[in-house]
Amino acid sequence: MNLLLKNISLPLADFSIEVDVELQSQVTAIFGPSGAGKTSLLDLIAGLRRPDSAFIQLDNRVLTHTAEGTLVPPRLREMGYVPQDLALFPHLSVRQNLLYGRKSESRAGPLFSFGHITEVLEIQPLARRRVTDLSGGERQRVALARALLTSPRLLLLDEPLRSLDEALKAKIIPYLQRVRDEFKLPMLYVTHDRQEVLALCDEVLEMRRGRITKRTRATARDWPIINNEL
Amino acid sequence: MTAEEWQIVWFTAWVSALSTLLLLPLGLAAAWLLARRDWPGKSLVQTVVMMPLVMPPVATGLILLKLLGRRGPLGRFLHDTLDLNIIFTWRGVLIALGVMSFPLLVLSARIAFEQVHPRFEQIARTLGAGEARVFFTITLPLAWRGILGGMTLAFARALGEFGATIMVAGNIPGQTSTLSLSIFQHVQLGQDAQAYRLLGVSVALAFLAVWISECLLLRPRR
Prior knowledge:
Structural class of chain A: alpha/beta
Number of strands of chain B: 0
Helix content of chain A: 25-40%
Structural class of chain B: mainly alpha
Strand content of chain A: 25-35%
Radius of gyration of chain A: 17 Å
Low-confidence stretches of chain A: none
Number of helices of chain B: 10
Order of helices and strands of chain B: HHHHHHHHHH
Mean pLDDT of chain A: 89
Order of helices and strands of chain A: EEEHEEEEHHHEHEHEE
Distance between the termini of chain A: 30 Å
Mean pLDDT of chain B: 92
Largest sheet of chain A: 6 strands, mixed
Distance between the termini of chain B: 41 Å
Strand content of chain B: under 5%
Low-confidence stretches of chain B: none
Strand order of the largest sheet of chain A: 7-8-9-3-10-11
Shape of chain A: globular
Helix content of chain B: over 70%
Oligomer: heterodimer
Largest sheet of chain B: none
């Protein structure tokens, strides 16, 4: 996959997001402390926010080009988004949530079949339940499956394991690894947890106050700990 | 209760219900635009929408009378092109009730829409939903309780409307006579028994409207 994020400029409350990168790894981490602008960057990529200036291109499709007034709406960007608070629709059942984004003809065919995804994420027994009845880990997997079932070209994950305890994180990370390996789906993974980056990602971009401050391969050797705390 | 009195009750009930239902499309549209969009003139529109709530009803009624009378800008058009009279007809009652209860519906619906977390709508868009689908499958279902509350308030307001109605439609027996207008007239004429009967029906109607809303429709989930 090839994601161009050129001349991105978005003013926030305290600082401005200024990003200019080209991403080609399968799983790229955006790593940084809270308030660094990571969620806003994902929102820009998903088309949920309008930047002051930006050129965003995924593979050979221009999604945002402020100079020419192009802003492809989110529903046409073919991206899956798993937000920080999951945003599972509370008035719909699990099954209705899962099928919300399902198109009648799936671009990727059997690779993203309902049965396959629910099997990989082990959520088949949850179909008839209300989302309010689910445990934290179950909600996480349902939110992930819901995004996957749209057969996206790119998966955006915003701190998907943030509100989980260590035991639960250890349980969910293998699911994410399976999604990565079975579906070969490009992912942008926002987190402030180093272990998640090392377990799942090929490359890591450090982000601080709206800027990418460092870019390296996501291995312990190439990305040593400089400070112990964020 | 006499047949005439039942006619008054029936008329009041159906014209209030019709007025509330007819307000829905415009009311929800206005509420959504005020809740979810910013546009030039928004504060002005918001203020104008709220005016009938704070102005004296007879004052609002006078404005409607001037607009909708045969010589008024709207009234003349309706009379000449559509052969439609508004003043002193049930249509006048309908419009008076609608205008007076509109702000209550818009206010409640706006608050209801504002309480739907925008994140749900955003995620629905990333899942491929267009604006119409987002509205009907996400925003509206998550806001329905507040909207229903607004409809109840609007209906109750319509049931009890007096000031604007008497200006625009008068109190023509069998044609534009509502519960409120009749009670007032009976008291003026010293006809206490009739007034109290209609008072009893008013109370019963109002109670019924709120009770249906509260107990049956707004029943807490589980």
